[in-house]
Amino acid sequence: MPLGDRIRRLFAPSRRLPSGAARPPRTRGPAGTAAVTVRVDDSAGWTSHNYAPGDRTWPELYTDLEDTLEAWRKNFMIRRIVNLTRSYAVGSGIEIGSSDEQVAAFLKDFWNHPKNRVDRRLGAICDQLTRDGELFPVLFTNPVDGMSYLRFKTARQIRDVKTSLNDYEHELEYIETVDGANDRRWISPNHALAWEPPAAGQAPPPLMLHWSVNRPLDGTRGESDLIPVLPWALRYSEWLKDRVRLNRQRTRAGMLDIGLADDTQVETKKQQMRALNPVEAGIYVHGPGEEVNMHSLRIEADDAEDDGKVLRLAIATGANLGLHYLGEGENANYATAKEMGEPTARFYADRQQDIIWMLEDLAATAYRRYCLITGRPFPENLDYQVTVAEVARADNESLAQAALGIVRALVLASNQGWIDDETALTLALKFAGETVTAEALREILANAPDRVESGNQGQYGSHETPGSETREGDE
After folding, report:
1. Which of 234, 243, 364, 418 is at a distance of 20 to 30 A from 292, taking alpha carbons?
2. What is the distance between the alpha carbons of residues 226 and 323, in angstroms, rounded to a whole number?
3. What are the angstrom distances between the C-alpha of 7 and each of 3, 15, 16, 48, 450?
4. How far apart are CA 23 and CA 12, in angstroms?
5. Given a cut of 90, is residue 313 above it in pLDDT?
């Protein structure tokens, strides 16, 4: 054995078998040499320490995250899907306020702080949720004034989510993979150290939140909206490339067949064609003594049109879109587009509500950290007031018309004594698309003035039914 190998073997760390484990047998090979038993490890290399049943392995998840990011950068279909979600779910912006003046003042300062600028981040937040299915905001709290500064970690950086035993929704820690160093741990608001008062002048530990969509009930990680679409978007791109490539080959492989009546001019014509290719020029002028025929490849490109439409339909279905959202408007009229757009509008409304809940979670955590530093009491109810653009403006018009019609009918029924005020208000709000608790309904009715006793005889304030007014000349 060479001297170098003997030295490396001498200082190599010993590998001991677990107690009770059987040592693999050593056999003798030809000429008395020792045969070594080799065990091949077929594992993925990275393993997750979380045992949630609905979670995938980290290598599978990381591969999908890399694929979606690459597709968003290079595939026009994927970019279109992500931009559509931003345009409808975020729209002109989302603002979180409160009816509590102190809470509202803090939220305004937090929202517009130069280190936060939440309104400018909403588009990127929505894009990241669409691509990754989850996002990890981090709050760094200033120990002087209690203001928190917002930063983000993406799903590709967080390898593991630690939860309580047998409770996958009670998250405690997040493990970030850091290149060239040990893993970094972030605590969640559920952690025991999250709300301990810090020492004087010291900042509390940063808090990491976890926002996710498309998350299984028995899992800890979200799923991208683009996972079902990626294979078909790739096939569609390849299909387009093949069509362009074949049409280019057909053009280049075109052959011009020229028949000359004078055989003595054949060599001269060949030299002329070599110097100036009429196929590339697209024009050829000849006299009556020449017969010209153009031969080209027949690739039957029209037969592939249906294949492209099927691929576009698969992409639109996986992305919860109608084909007209992807520019497929040739065979769609207004009625068809309206019916196809309703499921898409509902999907965008749901995603908008998800983002609102996430922002409310962010606001509550930031304000609670502010109360921790300043010593203020944390209120039981923050009384959020959300300002957001509607996903489908046409729905507002139809709801308004429905509410107007039902209110007129309910006023008539109430004046006739057919229905009580609480039921009438419940039905009116239902047709207006609003949901109000029974307690809020009673408060509204308690604060409403009596129509008759207060003397407020509005359009429908008296006990006269609409249309029964007495006009001059009718007596």
Report:
1. 243
2. 17
3. 6, 17, 20, 37, 100
4. 19
5. no
What are the φ/ψ torsions at residue 322 (nearest 5 degrees)? -85, 155
DSSP 385: E
Calculate the CA dihedral of residues 62, 68, 72, 76 and round it to 10 degrees. 160
Q: For residue 301, what pLDDT is reported?
A: 59
| Runs of H (alpha helix) within 176-294 | 230-252, 266-275, 278-281
The domain locations on the chain are 45-243+321-391, 254-295, 394-447
DSSP state of 220: S
| pLDDT surpasses 70 at 311 | yes
Q: How many CB atoms lie within 10 A of CB 134?
A: 24
Mean pLDDT of 411-436: 79
At residue 236, φ and ψ (nearest 5 deg) are -65, -40
- Across 56-89, b (16+ Cβ under 10 Å) vs e yields bebeebbebbebbbebbeebebbebbbebbbebb
User: How many angstroms separate the Cα of 64 from the Cα of each of 134, 161, 205, 230, 446?
Assistant: 13, 18, 31, 9, 56
Of 253 and 361, more confident? 361
pTM confidence score = 0.69
Nearest residue to 225 (alpha-carbon basis) of 118, 83, 392, 120: 83
Mean pLDDT over 193-206 rounds to 90
Query: Is residue 394 predicted with pLDDT exceeding 70?
Result: no
Q: Tokens 């196929």 correspond to what residue?
A: 279
- Over residues 282-306, mean pLDDT: 64
Residue 207 and residue 187 in contact, taking contact as beta carbons nearer than 8 Å: yes
Residue type at 12 in one-letter notation: A
